[in-house]
Automatic annotation (TrEMBL):
Transmembrane regions: 42-68, 80-96
Keywords: Membrane, Transmembrane, Transmembrane helix
InterPro entries: ASTER
Family to which the UniProt record says this protein belongs: Belongs to the Asterix family.
Protein origin, superkingdom: Eukaryota
GO biological process, one term: protein insertion into ER membrane
Entry's localization field: Membrane
GO MF entry, a single one: protein folding chaperone
GO cellular component assignments: endoplasmic reticulum membrane
Annotated stretches, region: Disordered: 1-30
UniProt-recorded name of the protein: Protein Asterix
Amino acid sequence: MHAANNVSDPRRPDKQNRYKPPAGHSNAADDLTYDCMNLLGMIFSMVGLMMRLKWCAWMALYCSCISFANSRVNDDAKQILSSFMLSIFAVIMSYMQNPQPMTPPWAQLI
């Protein structure tokens, strides 16, 4: 019975090749987008809070979103959540201190 299963089995174990990533290809562990955006989000959040710059607070929220999108499944969720909360807090506090609409930095130079 076992020999009959091998005859009807269309798979060919002698033709199976294990996948090897191409040489020179970047590994997923080498991708630093998540870490860089997380760090930039924290920096922009702190600058937005300390200097009351709305555009820095919005950039912090943007960097936090990019960091979340590029994070891996096994990354620390607490760090992502704290980055989001800090950036949202920076946006809320900057608008609580000055509720006027945001003016772009280049418009102030004119």
